[in-house]
Amino acid sequence: MVSTTERYADVAERLVEAERGNAEQIRKSAELILGVIRADALVFTAGAGHSLAAVAETFYRAGGLACVYPVYHPELLPLHGAQHSTKTERRSGLAEEVLAERAPGPDDLLVVFSTSGVNPYPVELAAGARARGASVIAVSSAASVAAAPKRAATTLIEEASIVLDSHVRPGDSSYPPDAPRTAPLSTVINAFLWNLVLAEVVDLGAAQGVDIPLWRSSNVDGGDEANAALLAKYGARVPALR
């Protein structure tokens, strides 16, 4: 039997691998976000299925970036219909429908979370954003993309300006190590990579004299007051903040 300590060590090793393997990409991603902040633009974040957990991590949370616009369609969320969410992610054309409502422009940035990175929705979303002049960061797994059945003309990795590689194994599961069938790691690693980028943004901002708009917890003294100014600034531009 594998001990809890040994399991934790394996997860910690995966996080270290993700950080070291993406050091340059994390810096470049932070520079893109800093450019968005300087331009008073928005960081759009998107995903489908369980990758929507990463989108939730980016949006309206304590310590999170305030200038985030979550790209969302209810049919992509498993809680609204598990099998239907899978079919929806594979449906070509949905991304353009979503972008028709509100799309990132040249000053904005799109971050797409998709471990397999092959279904039409994330691929077409990235392609559509780039066609509109926006840069695209893909948080994906090169190994998973290589192993997955191709369902779009290209892959998310091919459409991205920058790729943060989660190194998640095909199928996502991590345990047992010799024949993994449970303990998926994509949610953990996606959140970790995003927060590494945010930490780099804060450091770059401090070095360059740029104030980074960050939410505070509404459950600490002064939190509501601090957030009120951010809500006033971004509320009209990000409908999900209302």
Automatic annotation (TrEMBL):
InterPro entries: SIS_dom (IPR001347), SIS_dom_sf (IPR046348), SIS_GmhA/DiaA_subfam (IPR050099). It holds the Pfam family SIS_2. One of its GO terms (biological process) is carbohydrate derivative metabolic process. GO terms for molecular function: carbohydrate derivative binding. Residues 33-207 form the SIS domain. This is SIS domain-containing protein. It comes from Amycolatopsis coloradensis.
